[in-house]
Amino acid sequence: MTKNTGIQGRGNDQKQSPSVLDNFKPLLVDVAVPLGSYYLFKDGFGMSTFAALAWSSVVPAVRTVWGLVKERKANGLAGLILVVNIVSLLLSFVSGDPRLMLAKDGGVSSTVAIGILVSVRLGKPMMTAGMKPFLVKGDADKEAAWERLMSGAAAGSAAFLRKERAFSVVWGVALLAECVARVVGAYTVPVDTMVWLGTVFLIGAMAIAFVVGGGLAVEPMEKMLAAEVEAGTAEAPAAAVAA
C-alpha cells in the first residue's frame, strides 16, 4: 500500500510540479532559436543586421502566442513577455536601430525577473514549483514532510519558508542583473558580438543562480526536509501507542 502511494505520488508530482529545467526551457528556446536564425538570415541569406535581428526575433513572439493558444488559459508572465516583444519590435522597426532590437531581449529577462520578485512579495514564490521535485523526488514521506513545513505546522517551518523565498529572490536578482548587462552591452559592444554575448550573459546568470540558489536555499531545505521526515517517522509509533 505504501509502495503504491509512493508511485502515485511520483506520477502526480511529475505532472503537477515541473522541474526548474521545465520552467526555463522556453527561455532557452528563445535564446537558441533566435541566435541560430540570426546567423542563418545574415550569413546564409545576406540580410542586413537589422533585418536578420528582426526576423530572428519573430520566433519567440510566435512561440509565446502559440503557447497561450495551446494552453487555452491566461498566463500573466507569458502575456507580459509577449507584450514586451511586440512593443520592442514595433519601436525597433520605427527607429531602425539594431541596438534597440538587442536591448529588447533585456526587457524579456527583466519581465521574468520582476515576475519572480513580485511572486515572492505576494507570498507565492514562482520558483518553488520547479524546486520541489528535486527535493521530494516522488517520495510519499518527503511529500508529507514538505506539506507540513510549507503549512507552518512543523517546528522548522519558519526557516524552511525563508529559504524557499530566498531561492526565488536569487533567481530574480540574477535575471535582473543579466538584463542590465544585456542592455548596457547592446549600446556599448559591436552588434555582431552582442548577438552571441547576450546568450553568454543569460547562461552565466542561470549558472550563478543555480550555484548560489543551491548553496543558499536548496541544500539547507534538503536537510530540513530530511529532519522533518525523521521527526514524522518518530512520531508515528508514539501516536500508535497512545491510541
UniProtKB/TrEMBL annotation:
Coiled coil: none
Domain of life of the organism encoding this protein: Bacteria
Signal peptide bounds: none
Keywords: Membrane, Transmembrane, Transmembrane helix
Residues spanning the membrane: 44-62, 74-94, 106-123, 169-189, 195-218
Keyword match Membrane: yes
Annotated protein name in UniProt: DUF3159 domain-containing protein
Organism: Streptomyces diastatochromogenes
